[in-house]
Every structure is written in C-alpha cells, then in structure tokens.
Specification:
The complex is a heterodimer.
Chain A: H1 32-41, H2 45-52, H3 60-73, H4 78-86, H5 91-109, H6 119-129, H7 132-142, H8 148-159, H9 164-177, H10 182-191, H11 200-213, H12 222-232, H13 240-244, H14 247-262, H15 270-283, H16 287-297, H17 312-329
Helix pairs in contact in A: 1-3, 3-5, 5-6, 5-7, 5-8, 7-8, 8-9, 8-10, 12-14, 14-15, 15-16, 16-17
Chain B: H1 2-38, H2 42-62, E1 76-78, H3 84-97, E2 104-108, E3 113-120, E4 125-134, H4 135-140, H5 143-158, H6 165-183, H7 198-235, H8 237-262, E5 270-271, H9 274-285, H10 291-299, H11 315-323, H12 347-358, E6 366-367, H13 370-397, H14 403-411, H15 415-419, H16 426-430, H17 435-460, E7 464-467, E8 476-479, H18 483-494, H19 502-508
Parallel strand pairs in B: 2-4, 5-6
Antiparallel strand pairs in B: 1-2, 3-4, 7-8
Helix pairs in contact in B: 1-2, 1-6, 1-7, 2-6, 3-5, 5-7, 5-8, 6-7, 7-8, 8-9, 8-11, 9-12, 13-17, 18-19
The chains are: A mainly alpha, B alpha/beta.
C-alpha cells in the first residue's frame, strides 16, 4: 500500500477548495463571524446591537454571535461596558457580558487539570464566575422570554459546580425558550460527563434522551458521535480501526447524515456535525459519504475534530485526500 | 560489679585514645630523628611541621574541656524555701524510686528534663546531683505524665548512668576535638589551618572516634530504654508511653510559640513582659482552637532519622518498647491539673527564667502584653500589606491617599489604569495573561491589599480592633456588628466586572456608635 504522502490529488478536479485556501479560523461559510470581528475591532457597540437585533431570539445564529462576542469581550471589554451603559436593559448585551465572564474565568483557570491550577487562578476563576448568575438574572429580568442569559448560565453552572437537580431545572428553563438548542446540547453534554458532575450512566442517558427528543435537522446527533469518539473509543490504538467500523459508529453516522440532510440551508451549527461526519466517515471507510460531507464543508476547518490537531488545515486536507484516493482505488465507490 | 565494668569500659576507651595520641607523636619524633641523622634537608622541614601539627591535634583532644563550670549551668536554680511543693514532690519520688534525691533543682526554658551528677575519681565516687526541669513541660503536661518524665530521669540516677556522664563526655569530646583538628575545622564551623601530613593519621582518629561514639551512644540508648522501663513501673505503663509520645508534640508547639508569639514583636521593638514570656505557652497549648492542630501532630508524628550516634532511640521505638510491657492496670491519666501547679507563685520563677532566657534580646525593647502586641502587629501587617495599593493611588492623585481616593478613581473610570500598574504575578506570566485576564490577576493581588487598607483605616478610627488570640497568630479582627459583612459585600462590588463603589462608601462612613 502506498502512503498518501506520495500520492496527491488536485482538489479542484473534485470541486474542493485548494489546500492553501482552507480557513482554520472559521467553522463554515456564515459571513457573521467576519462581520462581528470587524465591528468588535471598531468597538462599534451600536453596530453590534443593530447587527444582532433582527436575529430570531432562539436562533442558533444568534447564540453563535453572542458566543463569539463573549469570547472577544473576554480579552477587551471597553465596547461592551459602553453598550451596557447605553442599553442597561438589553438582555443581549447582558448575555454577551455573561458569556465573556465565563470565558474570562476559564482564561484565568486555563484548561489545566485541577491539580495543576494555582490557588491564585482558582481565586480569580471563582470570583469572576460567581458574578455570572447575577448578570444572567438581570438579563432574564430585562427580557424573561430570552433564552440567551440562561444559555450563558449553563456554561457557568458547570464551573460553579451546580448540583444535578439545580442543573436540570436550568436546562428546563432553556428548553422552554429554545427547544432542542444545539448550543445548549453541547454545553450540557460536558456537564454530564463523569469528569464533571455526571457519570457514565447519566451521560449516556442524557445523550440518548436529547437525541430521541430532537427532530432531525437540529444537529444534535453530534452528541452521540462525539461521545463514541471521545468517551467510548478503545484506548488501544490497534483496536480503533475495528471500532470505527463497528455497528454503533455506523448507526450513529447514519443518523448524523440524516440529521445534517434535514437541516435548513445555512444552519450555522450543523456544520459542526458535518466536520465530525467527514472525519469519522473517512475513518469508517465510507469514503463516498465522507466526500459529500467534505464537499458540503467547503474550505473551512475551524471546528472539532480538526482543531485538536497541531495543523488543522493540513489534517483536514490530508483526510480529504485520503478519502478521494480510497474512493478512486475502490472504483469511485 | 556492673558499675565497675562500665567504668572500666569507658576508661578503656579513653586510655586507648591517649595511647593512639602517644603512638602518633612518638612515630613522628622517631621519623624526625631519622631524618636529621640521614640529613634529609628540605623534606625534614616538612616532617617537623607535621610533628608540630600532630602535637597540636593531640593536645586539643587531650585537653578538651568537659568540666561544666557552675556559671555555665543552664536555667534557674530554685530553692527549697521558694518551691517547697516541687521539692517535696521530687524528693518523694526519689525516695519511692530508691535513689538519692538531687541536691539542686534548676528550671530550664526548654522542652527537656535531665539529670547530671558531679562525680569524683572518674565517676566511681558519687557526687552532687542536679536535676533540670523544662518549664514548657510543666506548662503542657498533666501531673501524672510529668511524673513519668521525672521518673525517667530518676531512673538514670538509680541506674547510675548519670555518674559516668562526665567521663563518657570526656571520651566523646576528646576524639571529636582531635578529629575536627585533623580535618581542619573548628567547633564554631570556622575553617582552620590544616597541618601537613595530617591525612596520614586522620584515618586513625576517624576510625577510633567511630568506635568510641558508636559504643558509648549505643550504651546511652540502652540506658534510655532502661530509664523508660523505670518510668513505666513508677508512673504506670500507659502514662509513661503517653508522656513520651507527647514530648515531640510539646516540642513542636513550643518552637512554634517562641517563633510566632514571643519573637513576633521583636521587629517592632516589642517583647512580652517577663511573666508572660513563658507563661503564654501554657495558654496557647491548652487553647481549644489549637486542639485540632495538636491532634494532627499527635496522629502524624514527624518521621525520625536514626543514626548510630544518636544518644536516644527514636521515640516510636521507645513507646513501642514501653507498650510491650505487661499491662499494669493503671489507666492513662486524663487531663487534670498541669504540673505547673507544683510551683508556688509560678509567675516569679517564670519571669526570672524568662529574663535569663531572653538575655540581650530584651535590650531596647518595650514591654507589650499579648493584647498590645497583637494590636501593634495587626496594624503593622495591615500597613505593610496595603502599602503597594496605597502607593499606586498616592502617585495617581499626588498626595497621601485614603481608601475613598481609590473609590473616587474607580468612579472616574480609572480602575483599569490602577490594575495595569500591578506587576504580573508568576502564574500570570506563566500563562501569558494579557488584557482582562491580566487585570483579573491584578484584582486577585489587590483584594488582600484593599482588605488590609480598610482594616488599617477602621482600626485607626477606632471602628475595629485586633483581639489577641491563642488560636490565630495574627489575632482576631473585631468590628462593629455587621461591619465586616458590609465591607466584604462592598469589596465584592468594587472588584466586580462593572465596579460599584456605593456599598463600600456606605460602609466606610462613620456612624454613631450603637
């Protein structure tokens, strides 16, 4: 068998974006992130407010924008402070503030294992995080129907070590305002992991229940795919190829393909499902289906699993090439 | 018979040492004579120098002083007249132990008890007996445990161990002094001149020193175990074991007490009044707030390193040996009165001993009782801890700063400017914190500074004060009812993502006394 390094393809011949043009800082083709970056750079809080205003309150597009703004404000928040002073009763601005506080808290704590986090970091982490519930409460008071403050709280609750019951009650609040939210699903997914405040059983039940309740098109089938890859994959690398071809993985992939196909065109969060599908379909040897996901993704790889690799664009291109070559070798099947 | 054998053993070791010295010097002189006869020239000079060196080394070893001069005796002698209860107690115990009571009792400021005997004729003729009693032990131990400690020491008398103390010490000191002279180091750790050729006989001294130290210290350890058995038979097995296990706890506590309480005021020129210096230890040791820490010390004793030159076996081994004795039906005494009750007017000898113990350190110090010391230390610490923040504000406003000046700056939107003046902490540098993250690290540093600054102003204005405490070294901060909570809430609001100074301003405003 020849290695892929010695064989290359012309991406253009398959309708793909050339390797050099793959963007590792974006997950998909939505123009929102670039527009938001520009507004933040100009510290144009009014522009930001106007940009967000027409978005449907429970849309993933809005949640994505609020999340991105929160991350940006975790570094410098002058514009956000101005916005809040100008619109103190904007649940959007307060949700951005809450998101930024959670991000800031994690920037202080870092992703280190708990035993490697310095006391000084814990102090800052909790001081910042403890403010979030109050900010979210102000946001909810300003607009009780808005799910964005509750979504921000979902993230903070994990750091604040909320009990299972309290967390379930919060999820119910989110679900009542934004049913089957992709963003909420991903956030809760982490809370229920055994290494946070769940267990293997609670996590499995959470994933199964969430997917069972969600209609196709929400992208929530990503939860099972990610759980299979991250939690259930054999630690022995030699056993992995068989695992990737197992029934469990194939069924999850089938479900994922149907989910992605049912999504509305331009759904900003479904691209995250497609990234996982492309990656795992290739590993499962389902090259034709992998190629159709790669094709739908175009030239963006700023998402999991790619951003777990040192060079996400190179990995993305490598997997894509492998899928093409394998597909060619199999007689374009 | 046993006494004579032990005397002969020690004397033998000592004579052996003198013999080695004589042989080494003799050998050098013989070599010198040959060198002169053969006309060795330059190498003869080297040999003469070596001879002089050997003589110096030997003299140091032979004439090392082991005599304890009266003025070098530690502690404070207490008379029958001043301390009849203690004397009666010790005399009674000695009588019960079937040994001659000491003729002098000295109190010492250490966690220790000891006996010594000033003997004659190399220890064969009994002499004056002295007993040293550590005041910290009297303050910490209940009488039955204290009795176990005394009984152990009296056990040394009845075993006649104390009698050979001076002779054994002479043998040990002699070989050590010679060894150190050979190695070119002095007792005070200073480097001394190394005589030429000394390596030749250094090995001989080292080997003999090893023999003397190993055998005499092994004997010491056997004597300790024997004294422990005596203590167990006298004071009860469980009391003897308990007393012994308690010694390291008392020792560690006393070190802590001297360091954190007695010496704490020294940098401020303060020292507790003499009567408090030692007496405070009892208060600290028995403070309910310290019970947990002491319990932890008891349940997890310090690891002991053992060495063949240890004079005592490790405590754990001694306790195990005592507990291996058959049960005697005498249960361990509970709390009860501590042994300090054996002293009449304890503040008098305790003060006198404290004056001796502190010595020159008391020069130029003001006496401050625990409460006054706690207040002074609390204020000094608050000043020190708030200095950086107060300075940042002072430089920004161009005049001496108060907390309200900081709040004014924050209200003027200059919080970030203040935080940006904080040096990045090691952790912040490590994670490469910038922007808001770096400012949050600065907030974490600023929090205790602001707290101290508030304390400083409130204590100065009389709205809060420090109360001396035996359970926390820094003392307790006491304030008007509810004030501490208001300050905490005010600080949280000031350090929040959107700072708000109103609560803290309200808390700072002076109100009429309740």
């Amino acid at each position: 068998m020849t290695t892929s390094a010695t064989r290359t393809i012309d991406p253009g011949a398959y309708g793909f974006v050339p390797a050099a043009q793959i963007r590792a800082n974006r997950a998909g083709p939505s123009p929102d992130p670039d527009a938001i970056d520009r507004l933040v750079e100009e510290r144009d809080w009014a522009g930001i407010s106007a940009f967000l205003a027409p978005m449907p309150p429970a849309s993933e597009r809005r949640f994505a924008a609020i999340g991105q703004l929160g991350n940006a404000a975790a570094n410098e928040d002058g514009w956000l402070q101005q916005w809040i002073r100008a619109e103190p009763r904007s649940s959007t601005a307060l949700a951005v503030l809450a998101e930024s506080m959670v991000r800031l808290a994690w920037n202080i704590r870092t992703g280190q294992r708990a035993e490697n986090v310095a006391p000084e970091q814990w102090t800052g982490f909790f001081r910042v995080l403890r403010e979030v519930p109050e900010i979210c409460a102000r946001g909810s008071a300003a607009d009780p129907a808005d799910s964005a403050p509750f979504l921000a709280l979902l993230n903070a609750a994990r750091g604040l070590q909320w009990s299972n019951d309290r967390y379930r009650a919060l999820c119910a609040e989110v679900d009542a305002r934004a049913p089957h939210s992709f963003t909420a699903g991903i956030r809760s997914y982490h809370y229920w992991l055994p290494r946070w405040y769940g267990s293997v059983e609670l996590h499995a039940a959470y994933v199964a229940d969430t997917i069972a309740a969600a209609p196709l098109g929400t992208g929530l089938t990503i939860l099972r795919i990610q759980a299979l890859h991250d939690e259930l994959r054999p630690s022995d690398t030699a056993a992995r190829p068989a695992f990737y071809c197992s029934d469990a993985v194939n069924q999850a992939l089938d479900h994922g393909i149907a989910d992605a196909a049912a999504a509305e065109p331009g759904a900003v969060k479904v691209v995250y499902l497609r990234h996982w599908l492309a990656y795992l379909l290739r590993l499962a040897g389902r090259n034709a289906e992998a190629l159709s996901q790669f094709s739908a993704l175009g030239g963006y790889c700023g998402a999991e699993p790619w951003d777990r690799f040192k060079n996400p664009a190179a990995k993305f291109d490598e997997m894509r090439t492998q899928a093409v070559l394998a597909w060619e070798d199999a007689g374009r099947r | 018979m046993r006494t004579i054998l032990r005397a002969l053993h020690v004397i033998g070791l000592l004579l052996g040492f003198y013999l080695i010295c004589a042989v080494i010097i003799g050998a050098f002189i013989v070599a010198d004579v040959f060198a002169v006869e053969l006309g060795a020239g330059r190498s003869a000079i080297f040999l003469f120098a070596g001879t002089v060196g050997a003589i110096v080394v030997v003299l140091r070893g032979v004439f090392v002083s082991t005599r304890i001069k009266r003025k070098d005796l530690p502690g404070l002698p207490v008379s029958h007249a001043d301390q009849p209860v203690l004397w009666a107690h010790v005399t009674e115990m000695a009588r019960a132990a079937g040994t001659r009571p000491p003729s002098e009792i000295r109190l010492i400021p250490n966690v220790n008890a000891a006996v010594m005997e000033h003997t004659h004729l190399l220890g064969l003729v009994p002499g004056k007996r002295r007993m040293l009693i550590g005041v910290p032990l009297m303050l910490a131990l209940p009488v039955p445990l204290f009795d176990a400690v005394l009984a152990h020491e009296l056990g040394h008398y009845s075993g006649r161990d104390a009698r050979f103390g001076p002779l054994t010490a002479r043998a040990r000191e002699g070989v050590i002094a010679a060894l150190m002279a050979v190695r070119g180091s002095s007792k005070k750790g200073k480097k001394r001149y190394r005589w030429p050729g000394s390596d030749v006989y250094a090995a001989v001294f080292a080997a003999y020193a090893n023999l003397v130290l190993s055998s005499t210290f092994a004997a010491s350890r056997r004597q300790e175990l024997a004294a422990d058995r005596f203590a167990a038979s006298f004071a009860g097995r469980d009391n003897a074991a308990a007393a012994l296990s308690e010694l390291p706890v008392v020792d560690a506590s006393y070190d802590f007490y001297l360091d954190r309480y007695v010496s704490a005021g020294l940098p401020l020129g303060l020292l507790p009044p003499p009567a408090d210096i030692l007496g405070g230890f009892g208060s600290m040791f028995h403070d309910a707030g310290r019970a947990e820490e002491l319990g932890a010390l008891r349940s997890a004793p310090r690891e002991e390193q053992t060495h063949k030159w240890d004079s005592h076996p490790p405590v754990s081994e001694r306790v195990a040996a005592i507990l291996a004795l058959p049960a005697d039906g005498r249960s361990r005494a509970g709390g009860g009165t501590t042994a300090i009750s054996l002293l009449m007017n304890p503040q008098v000898p305790l003060a006198a001993l404290a004056v001796k113990m502190v010595g020159d350190k008391a020069t130029g110090k003001r006496a401050a009782d625990w409460q006054a010391q706690s207040a002074a230390l609390g204020l000094a610490a608050a000043q020190k801890q708030s200095a950086f923040l107060a300075d940042v504000v002072r430089l920004m406003i161009g005049r001496p700063s108060r907390v309200v000046d900081l709040l004014d700056l924050i209200d003027a939107g200059r919080m970030n400017e203040i935080l940006d003046q904080f040096p990045r902490s090691e952790v912040a540098r490590k994670i490469n914190a910038t922007g808001r993250t770096a400012r949050e690290f600065a907030k974490t540093s600023a929090t205790p500074m602001l707290r101290s600054w508030l304390v400083l102003e409130l204590v100065t204005s009389g709205r809060a004060w420090f109360r001396h405490s035996w359970s926390t070294v820094s003392g307790e901060l006491v304030a008007e009812p509810g004030l501490i909570q208001e300050l905490q809430a005010g600080m949280d609001a000031v350090l929040a993502s959107v700072p708000n100074t109103m609560k803290l301003r309200a808390a700072l405003e002076t109100r009429k006394p309740v």
